[in-house]
Amino acid sequence: MKQKLVFFVGVAGTGKTTVARKLARRIQAAFLDRDTVGGRFVEKILEMNGLDVNDRDSEFYKKQLRDLEYDTTKDICIENLAAGQNVFMISPFTAELKNKTWIDEVLAAAGLSKQEVDVKVIAVTLGDMETQRKRIEQRQTERDNWKLEHWDDFKQRVQFVPEVNWDLPASSILVFDNSGDLTDEKVESAYQFVMSES
After folding, report:
1. Residue numbers in the chain where pLDDT is lower than 50
2. Sheet holding 87-90, edge to edge
3. For residue 140, what pLDDT is reported?
4. Could you tell me what percentage of the chain is helix, strand and coil, using 3-state DSSP and rounding each to the nearest 5?
5. Could you say which DSSP state residue 144 is in?
6. Among residues 45, 110, 115, 166, which one has the fewest Cβ atoms lying within 10 Å of its Cβ?
7. Which sequence ranges form a coiled-coil region, renumbered to this chain (predicted)?
8. Distance from first CA to last CA of the chain, Å, rounded?
9. Tens digit of pLDDT for each residue in 22-37?
């Protein structure tokens, strides 16, 4: 069976990490959540610059730190792929999904290709913004304070289904509606999607 490289994408509060954790119990994979990979370093750099350690929306973060987090996560992904591991990647990956060549560059850096690695994208969505807001509130993360304090601005730039510009067959992209309870049936459908060969 081919190696699996699975991206769990979507905006804050949709439940990307929760869905990924459920599948990780059934599929052995390196579990790379970009928040975990870069969080401590980003917070320290923000603190050193006298900025809010929970900021992920300012121009400073976007210009100076955003790519550091994503590129570091990408490098760890490449190392795991090259070592023969399945990899789960959890983050919005907004810019990366728009870059048509990004996924091929990642695979090439690992010495691999789409013939050897089955790339899947699970776009985790919710049916409405109120559910999303409640989930963001329930996880009680200081990092989400900006979103909640500027909710009208935040929800205006939310796209429920991220645009995937990578050269993948339609069968490699799953829009996963995570509204309501995350039932065994929903998890099973995502599992079957990941395990199927594209």
Report:
1. 156-159
2. 30-33, 87-90, 3-9, 117-125, 173-177
3. 65
4. 50, 15, 35
5. G
6. 115
7. none
8. 12
9. 999 999 999 999 999 9
Contacts of residue 15, defined as CB under 8 A and 6 or more positions apart, other chains included, come to: 124, 126, 135, 178, 182
The whole-number pLDDT of residue 54 equals 80
37 in Cβ contact with 69 (< 8 Å): yes
Q: Which residues pair with 123 in a beta bridge?
A: 9, 175
Question: Quick one: pLDDT at residue 111?
Answer: 98
CA dist 60 → 42, 63, 71, 125 (Å): 11, 5, 17, 28
| Phi, then psi, of 141 in degrees rounded to 5 | -105, 130
The Cβ of residue 59 has, within 10 Å, a number of other Cβ atoms equal to 7
